[in-house]
Amino acid sequence: MSCCFFGDRKKGHDLVHHDTRDAGGDSIASTKNFSFNELRLATNNFHQINKIGRGGFGTVYKGTLKQGKDVAVKTLAAESRQGLREFLTEIETISNVKHPNLVEIIGCCADGNNRILVYEYLENRSLDRALFGSRTSIKLEWEKRTTICLGTARGLAYLHEELVPHIVHRDIKASNILLDKDYTPKIGDFGLAKLFPDNITHISTKIAGTTGYLAPEYVLGGQLTMKADVYSFGVLILEAVSGKSSSSRIWQGDKRSLLEWSWRLYQEEKLLELVDEELDEFPEREVVRYIKTALFCTQANANRRPMMSQVIEMLSRDIQLNEKELTPPGFFEDSEGSVQSRLKISRGNTSQQSSVHITITQVTPR
Ligand SMILES: Nc1ncnc2c1ncn2[C@@H]1O[C@H](COP(=O)(O)OP(=O)(O)OP(=O)(O)O)[C@@H](O)[C@H]1O
Ligand SMILES: [Mg+2]
């Protein structure tokens, strides 16, 4: 069994198998190569109106191919302008990863200096818009939220446990969960970190922007295992239940983070207070089981977190979770714009909680 951490070339976990074929064209069998012109036409010359978002990797446009198929066109930022052969080889690797809960890569463009990825277009866009955006547009009732959590768990279990070599996503968060017209979730951006050279530019952006999802051992020591994804998935469940973003500015004062607040409510046996007020009806036992599963996923000690296949069981079956095994969560938090960040790990049992603060000054590259 082997495990691959994207972008972690120095440690020898590299996925790259050096392709000896001509990297210029049709030799990359399963991946369609688009010309820059084709994509320019598809996106109305990358028009502002077609722009649907911008993330750490680059800008995303909605496009329509000649045949009428809608696509999402992601123009990768300058840091990703690595060698043509390596780019195409890596695209080939991630294009071959297919699962109903993973976004499909349709093709790419490596024309001149341009590095562009073409994905299937998901009508309901990303989960962050559905959960935290304007509430008038999309109503996410409890059943839809369970479909989204379970489907995401299945996609992750596939990346972690079925695929060889395994893939650690490293960036599980609501904006990377795309929703099709039936709200089937599809994990996006898996493997994208691999397309970036080893530098800290992107992860620095991430740490500023999405601290709420990062497992403490990853931030502090760069220990990247699939349990870091399990941690982020746990945070995602809490967001799906509460309708609140873990990286929102509302987390201050006595509610220092979504996870910390959830843990406190657990200790006080008031877990239902976490539930999104937009939810009119919900099955209480199931909701509580979801929150407790999230707490299992976010435990400070990565070894105690379940595997994703276990998480699927915990979410989908009406079972009693063994709470004697549950230990407090670990938190990583930004100290308000400062370069330094603090890692806070809760210690103690469920009735008593103390914490340690460790100051770190450097972040391990993704
Ligand atoms: N395949 C797609 N179908 C529909 N919308 C998409 C698709 N891919 C991305 N988007 C939209 O584009 C936005 C930006 O995506 P992008 O992946 O660039 O940024 P992000 O997810 O916010 O951050 P990150 O760089 O960490 O992935 C998403 O939030 C989503 O709304
Ligand atoms: Mg994304």
TrEMBL record:
Entries under InterPro entries matching the protein: CR_Ser/Thr_kinase, Kinase-like_dom_sf, Prot_kinase_dom, Protein_kinase_ATP_BS, Ser/Thr_kinase_AS
Annotated region described as Disordered, given as residue ranges: 345-366
Record's keyword terms, sorted: ATP-binding, Glycoprotein, Kinase, Membrane, Nucleotide-binding, Phosphoprotein, Receptor, Repeat, Serine/threonine-protein kinase, Signal, Transferase, Transmembrane, Transmembrane helix
Highest rank taxon of the organism: Eukaryota
Binding locations of ATP: K74
Main localisation: membrane
Domain Protein kinase, chain residue ranges per copy: 46-321
Annotated compartments: Membrane
One cellular component term from this protein's GO annotations in UniProt: membrane
One function term, GO molecular function aspect: ATP binding
Name under which the protein is recorded: Protein kinase domain-containing protein
Annotated source species: Solanum lycopersicum
